[in-house]
Structure formats: C-alpha cells, structure tokens
C-alpha cells in the first residue's frame, strides 16, 4: 500500500470524479484510476461506486476515508514539525554563561532573540570557564558566552561585544568617595577574583590589567557571593559595566579610568554543531551586535 494511493483516494472522494481529482493533482486520469484500483485490491474493499454519472464513495468506505484523512493530517503535522526544526524556529537552545546575563548589551540581544524565536525553548546554564568548555566539547550545551581571555582548543570563538570594567567597593570605603579609580588605587586592597578549581583565566586577566603583585584572592563562588563579601567590607572586586546596572546593597560601583579596563566577550560553540537553532542564535546575536555598534534600532 503506497502513501500516494491514499492521497489519490482522498482527492477523488473530495472532488467527486477521477477527472476533476486528476486535474487538481496534476496527473493523468489513467494514472489516478490505476492507483485507486490497486488500493482497492490491497484493501480488499470497493472504495467507489462507478456509474455513468461519476463516482460515489461506497458506503462501506466511509470509515476508511475518515481514518485516511486523519493519518494524512498527522503525517502533515510531522512534516511541518520537521520543517520548523530544520529551519531552527522550534526546539531548544542551551546557553552557557559565566555570569548572570543582566544589563546591556546582552539583555537587549536576548530580548530580540526571544521576540524573533518565541517557540524555541531557551535554557541558561551558569557555569565556570572550565565547565563551559567541557560542556561545549561534550555538546551538552549549544553555545557559550565567555570572555575572550580564555581561548580554547576544539571550540570556535567569535568576538561579539566589549564592556568596560568597573570597581565594586564597600559603600563606606574611602574609594567609594572617588569619582573614578586607577589601578594604583587597588595596590593596598584585597581584590577578590571569581574563579574555580582548574579555571584560573580570570585571575590571569585581572593581573594583566592591574599589574603583577596585587593581593588577588580567589573566591570559588558566584558573583552574588563575591558582592556580598565586598558589601561586608572584606575586600573589593571588578565587575562588568552591565553588572553595575543592578544595585546591590552595601556595594558602590565606580568607573575605572584606565584604557585597558575592558573585557571582550565571545560566542563559543563546537565546530561539529549542525543544529539549525544554533545557527539562528549565532546569526541573531551577530545582527544585534552590529545594530548596537552602528546605533540602529532593532525595530528598523
């Protein structure tokens, strides 16, 4: 039993004649007639009563027609779902980040992605650098958004945007009274670095900006915990400008007046990834970055 024969059967039933159905389908009447006759033989059932006035659905063929239409509709839904998945308009996108995606420009970039792809489930995993790399290689996450100071083998990394760095200091600290800070202002401060075992890229990045010899202290915890320690007066830390958009009790954010006080963020993904959703996400983020750099609104 061929699928095309079932489609021909439904077409003849809907149009009431072999010739009308053949014209609608774009096939010859003889081809259509042979196909339906073969289907009747396969089913062992007369589907149409033929007469000089045309064809009529046989009474016993009614249930067969209903089931055939239901089956074809289900197959159509499967094909449509496959088309959407192949085009990247449905499915799931797993993004790995080192810090919560708060503030600009990432907030607007993700908002645009959500607006353009409402049927794609979006999952964010907050992980360390080492974990993001491992998850990308294992393809348990699809894309990473990571600082460019941690280049990885086996992973494609593409610069996306840059952010200024700011200092997070206790609100009653002497540095909180300054309009802007210089690296030399940190030489007598304990500077917290958010990093985990097997992941020292952030510590090296801080040292490259601020200079060797600063009392850097590693904190194996999230940024919220680091800010909590800063608020309690244990030390100071650096943060991205976007993180300063969210107020934190007891913490004051101060600009750092140094030319190298910035960090570049990259999209990272496995070169083996062939998922259409991943391709769409990368394209969306690139387009948002271009609009941001050129000052064009996302609605243009």
Q: Would you spell out the secondary-structure blueprint of this structure?
A:
Layout: H1 3-15, H2 18-25, H3 29-43, E1 48-51, E2 54-57, H4 62-87, E3 91-97, H5 106-116, E4 120-126, H6 129-138, E5 143-147, E6 156-170, E7 191-194, H7 201-210, E8 216-219, H8 223-231, E9 236-240, E10 251-255, E11 262-269, H9 276-294
Helix pairs in contact: 1-2, 1-3, 1-4, 2-3, 5-9
Shape: rod-shaped
Oligomeric state: single chain
Distance between the termini: 53 Å
Residues in β-strands, percent: 15-25%
The helix-strand sequence is HHHEEHEHEHEEEHEHEEEH
Total beta strand runs: 11
Counting H and I runs of at least 4 residues, what is the number of helices? 9
Report the major sheet. Answer: 9 strands, mixed
What is the helix fraction of residues, given as a range?
40-55%
Question: Could you tell me the radius of gyration in angstroms?
Answer: 31 Å
Task: Enumerate the spans where pLDDT stays under 50 for 5 or more consecutive residues.
Answer: 296-300
Q: Pairing-aware structural class of the strands and helices?
A: alpha/beta
**Overall pLDDT metric:** 86
């Amino acid at each position: 039993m061929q699928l095309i024969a079932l489609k021909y059967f439904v077409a003849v039933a809907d149009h009431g004649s072999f010739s009308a159905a053949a014209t609608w389908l774009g096939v010859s009447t003889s081809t259509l007639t042979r196909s339906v006759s073969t289907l009747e033989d396969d089913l062992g059932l007369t589907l149409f009563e033929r007469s000089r006035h045309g064809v009529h659905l046989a009474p016993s063929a009614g249930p067969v027609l209903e089931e055939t239409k239901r089956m074809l509709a289900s197959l159509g839904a499967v094909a449509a779902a496959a088309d959407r998945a192949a085009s990247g308009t449905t499915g799931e996108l797993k993004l790995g980040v080192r810090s919560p995606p708060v503030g600009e420009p990432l907030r607007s970039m993700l908002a645009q992605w959500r607006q353009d792809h409402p049927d794609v489930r979006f999952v964010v995993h907050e992980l360390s650098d080492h974990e993001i790399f491992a998850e990308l290689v294992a393809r348990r996450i699809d894309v990473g958004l990571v600082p460019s100071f941690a280049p990885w083998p086996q992973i494609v990394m593409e610069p996306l945007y840059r952010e200024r760095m700011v200092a997070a200091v206790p609100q009653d600290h002497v540095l909180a009274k300054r309009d802007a800070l210089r690296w030399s202002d940190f030489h007598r401060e304990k500077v917290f670095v958010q990093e985990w075992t097997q992941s020292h890229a952030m510590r090296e990045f801080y040292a490259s900006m601020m200079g060797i010899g600063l009392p850097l202290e590693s904190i194996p915890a999230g940024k919220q915990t680091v800010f909590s320690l800063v608020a309690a007066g244990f030390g100071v830390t650096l943060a991205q400008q976007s993180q300063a958009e969210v107020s934190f009790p007891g913490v004051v954010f101060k600009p750092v007046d140094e030319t190298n006080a910035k960090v570049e963020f990259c999209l990272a993904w496995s070169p083996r990834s062939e998922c259409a959703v991943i391709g769409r996400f990368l394209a969306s983020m690139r387009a948002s970055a271009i609009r941001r750099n050129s000052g064009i609104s996302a609605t243009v």
